[in-house]
Every structure is written in C-alpha cells, then in structure tokens.
Amino acid sequence: STQKPTRFQTNEYADAQLHEIVKKMRERANVYKEKLNDPVISSPEGSPTASPKKPPPPPKEEKKDEKKDEKKEEKKEEAEAKPEEDHYCDMLCCKFEKPPLLKKYQEYMKLPDTIDSYTDRRYVAWLMLVTIAYNWNCWFIPLRYVFPYQTPSNSIYWFVIDVICDLCYLCDLTVFQPRVRFVKGGDIISDRVETKKFYYSTVKFRLDVISVLPFDVLSFFFGFNPAFRANRMLKHNTFFEFNDRLEAIMEKAYIYRVIRTTGYLLFVLHINACLYYWASDYEGIGSTRWVYDGEGNMYLRCYYWAVRSLITIGGLPEPDTLFEIIFQLLNYFMGVFVFSSLIGQMRDVIGAATAGQNYYRSCVDNTVSYMNTYSIPKLVQNRVRTWYEYTWDSQGMLDESELLEQMPTKMQLAVAIDVNFAIVNKVDLFKASSGCDTQMIYDMLLRLKSIVYLPGDFVCKKGEIGREMYIIKQGEVQVLGGPDGTKVLVTLRAGAVFGEISLLAAGGGNRRTANVVAHGFANLFILDKKTLNEILVHYPDSEKLLMKKAKVLLKQKGKPPPGPPVQQPRGLASLFGQKPETPKLFKAMLGGRGREGLAKLLQLKRQQATQVKPQKTEENKSEAKKQANKKTFKKETKDEPETKPKEEEKKPEEPAAPTAPPAQKEEPKADDKPAVMQRTTSKESLIISMTPSPRAGEGEILKVEIKEKEKK
C-alpha cells in the first residue's frame, strides 16, 4: 500500500508574527551596528536606573509599628483580592451577577465633586432638562392665567407637571450649580467648598432661590391662581447658559440660532395673543367689532389676530372705545420694534452662517475679473475655477493656515500632531523610532504646506532641481517614464512619500529622474529645503543623523534595477573566474564600439598578412636586389606626402576646443582596395584625459582631444 505524503499546514497568524519579530530583530541589529560605527547616534534604549540604596535597619519600636502597618496592608490586599461584590446583588439568599456594562454606566453617571461646565456633556444634558421646565412655565403660566383652560377636572394633571418642574429647579439649585467650577485669577478652582462659596455669592443664586419659593401655598387661602407661579420665570440665566453650551458643542450652531430666533418670534406672538384675549374679556366678549366674538377656537383666533396686528399686516376692524384705541396703538408700536429687531437678528444669524460661502464667492469673482482683464485663455480660466471648486468642497476653506494662525502655537501644534504626525512618521528620514528628535518633528509639522493639484498637473518634472519633499495626503500621483515619457512606472497613493532625498542632498539638490503627474485631484503636503535648514539649525545632532541616513537612502535608491539572471558557466568553465569588463580607455581607443572596432583591426591584420606572404617566396634573390629595393622604398617614403588612414577611428569632439576642427571623413569607394595598416605620421596629436562628473553618482568622464602639432 502506498502512503500518501503528509501535508504540513502553517498558521498564517503565527507566520506573520514570526516575520514581524525577525524584522524587528534585524532593525535592532542595524541600529547597534550604526551605534558602533558612529558614536553620535544615541541608543534607542533608555539608560538603566540606579538601584535604590537599602535603608538602615529600624529600631525595635519602629519594627512593631511596621508589623502593625503590614497587617493592615495584608487585610486590605485580602479585601481587594476577594471577588468584587459590586458586581453582585443579594436576592433570596442568592447572588446575581450584575452586567459590567451596568457598572460602567453607574460610574459614568456618578456625579464628580466638581463639574467642568465647558466639557462635561452630562451637565449640558441637565441644563436641557431645566430649560424645558423653564419654557413650560414661560409659555403656560400666561396661557393658564388668561384663557380658561384649567378646570377643576384637569387640575391634577397641571399640578403633577408643575411639581416635576419645581423638582428640576430644586435639584439644579442644591446639586448641580454648587459643583460648577469657576476661574479666579487665571486658575480653575475645583475645590468643592470654594465652588459652593462662589455660587452662593452670585446674583444667579439669589434669582434661583426666588424662583423656587413656594408661593403656590397661597392657593389654599385665595384659591388657585397661576399668577402665584410667576416667580418661576426668573430662572432665565440657566436658559441662556444652555444656549451658549449647546452652540459650543454643535458642528452647525447656526441651525440652532435660527430655531431659537424663530422661537423668540413665536413667543412674542403668544404673549400678544394672551394680551388680546385679556383685553377682549375686559371689554366683554363680542361686545364690539374689535374684540374677540367668542366663536371658534379662542386661542387660534387670538393668535391669528396677534400675527396680523404685530407684523402690521392690516385688515383688522377699527377700534371703537378709548381703551381699544390705546391698546391697538401700543400693539403697533411694540410690533414695529420687536419685529424689526427679530428680522435684524435673523439677518445676522443667516449672514454668519453663510459668511464662508460669501468669502469664497467674492474670491472667485475677483479672480475671474482679473483673468478677464488680462485676457487669460479660457482653458486656464476653467482650470482655475475647477481648483477653487474642489478646494472649497474638500476643505470647506481656501487656506487652512489662516484658520490656525488665530490659535496659540501650542494649540496649532496639537492640531498638527493629530492631523499630520501619522503621515510624517512614515517617512524613513523622520521616523521617531530611528533616533530623530521628536521636538524637531513637531516643529516640522507646523511648517508643512497643503497644496491641491488638478488632474494632469505636473508635481515635478524630469531634470528639475529637487528642493521639496512631497507627502500624499489625499488622491493619487503617477510616476511616468519610458522613451516618450508616457509610461506609468508606479502609482503612489495616500500616505506615500517621494522627494525626501532632495532635502538633504549636497550641492544644492538632486535632479528629478522622472515626471510625477497627478492622476486625479491630489492634496499634497510640501516641505522645502530652506524650511528644513531653518529647523535643523537648532538640532545639530538630528542634522548629523539625517545626513547619514540620507547617504544610506541615496545609495539604496541609486542602485540600478535588477536585470535578468546571469547564466552560470557550466563544466570546466566554472573553475575560472568571470571575464573582467573591458576598460573604458581601451574601448575609447577601439573606436567606442566594442567588438566592432576589434574585429576591424583583426581583419586589417589578416589582409596585411596575405600581402606579405607572396614576398616570402622571393627570399632566394640576391642581397643586392634587396638592398636596392630598400633604397627605392626609402626614396618613395621621403617623396610621398603624408597621408591619413582611410578608415579613421571615431573620437568624441570637445566643444570647448574650437581651434581643433575635426578631420574630414572620406567616403570609401567601391573600387578601392581593402585598407592596409601602414605606419604613417600625422600633424595632429591625441590627448586623452579623465575628469570627474559634475553630477553626483555618475563617476568620471573620458575626454579625447585632437590638436595640431606646432610648426617649428
């Protein structure tokens, strides 16, 4: 029977954890290697603390006291070690466990000794309850006093609601307001005794006490009258405090302001309706055309009359008696004043709500007017409008720095840390774990500039001097390359960083090696070289560390991309080393074409050998004939003008030496015989030199110059 091979299953989580541990150990090893090489870098681990000295042995009397204290501590530890009894409740000789959520809720709802009225949401919720009770009294006390809506049959319901409102007033007076913190001499006083004294000394406390005085007791002697509860409307300070606290925590506070202003208008109309019914009752219901005739819903009819009278719509019956005329005149005067005030307040509220939008529209209009004045092309105008629209829709403002400039520096730093620290910490140069000064990174966060690029905008172009580092906050950018510069090499998304080497490159900056284009709308953070240098002046240790890390990153990123795998030699060829590359000097001497120049030299040598071979057959001739041939050969060489070889090696021309014109090339003819290497002289001299490249990382440049010899 064949056994099936066993398959090993790996745990993905365990495998990922092992990889993470190995990665951290390698990083730690690299840090210690750098520490050994460069003592400037500080160790990532804290220095060990000194061990505390042992105290001298106490005397015998102190030992007894210590034993008693130890026993007390042991009892406390035993009590703490017991299961928490707060989670259980005894019922029918059994213990039922309370859910932990209930305990957390109880702890959250437990009132502290003092309350911060600006940040505690529970205090705002309590103020809302008190405000509801206050509005109940403000709206229904006049209504119950004027209109006959409260009867003996429904008095119990009115009484219950009144008692609930009074309890809210009383709890606010005795529990919440004495706990509210206050500021004295710039210090926040959080002592319970001091907060009580401060509250008892304010005018607000006196009004709160008056508002809870039980004047309702007079109803047992004079009969029930809602006017006895008029003192409940004196708790207006709590109402306005709730408005301020609610607007401070709302994202769109102008919505609540509009609702509140509308409520003021409705309340004034409500009071006017109550006054009109009281005047009608005083004159007599239905006695004249001006008063209420007693038909339909009394409150709605009176409210309708109040709206038409207070807003001065007109179309009302004319008053007949003197009382009616005076009442109507006062009503008109009050309506003009109140209504105009409310309309003005409503205008201010709406204007404050749309102030940002108005500022945006004015900026766009001014920019469009400027472009039309100077006849800017429509294509550019459309791009400018697109930038305005996207920036406003994405940020809600055109420049974030204008908003932050109004805050203190510490608050600006706190906001910048929450928004940008996680992004900057991804940059290899500025990682806090690698030894960079944290305060230096904080200073850098305040200098970052946010810029929005439109689709197709070039973030940087190939060949430009890099003076900035870019951090992608939102959107995508594409790195383009290839022969025509349109091939997408890589796409960078939010959180990616590029151009960080240019910040610390020597010699004024690095040249960009590729084009970077915004794929869509891209929001980028920019940090320029000048700003970083201003920061590093105050952090010399961080500057040294950053320079060293920049060199390491430059070497890593400057390596050529891995090519195809090199084929390993087989057989006996594997015993010998790899053939070294031909030196650059020999390549230049061979015409700069590698094997082609060498092949031509070999071909010329073979042709010379074939011509020399027939001459060897005539070696048996006489020496006199040979000497004669030599003499004739010498004469020919003297009389023959100096010639150049037909095929001349190609040499790079130096533009800096215009006095040496290049030699004219003669086109080979078809009838010419194959060239033969001859020893000839020339009036030109060849100068070969090596000079360092002006660009970093490109090695040296070979220069070949041809100069004519000076005539003697």
UniProtKB/TrEMBL annotation:
It is a multi-pass membrane protein. Residues 33-80, 555-578, 605-712 are annotated as: Disordered. The keyword Oxidoreductase does not apply. The chain crosses the membrane at residues 123-143, 258-279, 325-343. It comes from the Eukaryota. GO terms for cellular component: intracellular cyclic nucleotide activated cation channel complex; photoreceptor outer segment; plasma membrane. Gene3D superfamilies: 1.10.287.70, Helix hairpin bin (1.10.287.630), Jelly Rolls (2.60.120.10). It catalyses: Na(+)(in) = Na(+)(out); K(+)(in) = K(+)(out). Residues 59-80, 615-626, 634-654, 664-674, 697-712 have a biased composition (Basic and acidic residues). It is found in: Membrane. One of its GO terms (biological process) is visual perception. Residues 678-692 have a biased composition (Polar residues). Keywords: cGMP, cGMP-binding, Ion channel, Ion transport, Ligand-gated ion channel, Membrane, Nucleotide-binding, Sensory transduction, Transmembrane, Transmembrane helix, Transport, Vision. One of its GO terms (molecular function) is intracellularly cGMP-activated cation channel activity. Residues 432-536 form the Cyclic nucleotide-binding domain. This is CNGB3 protein. It comes from Origma solitaria.
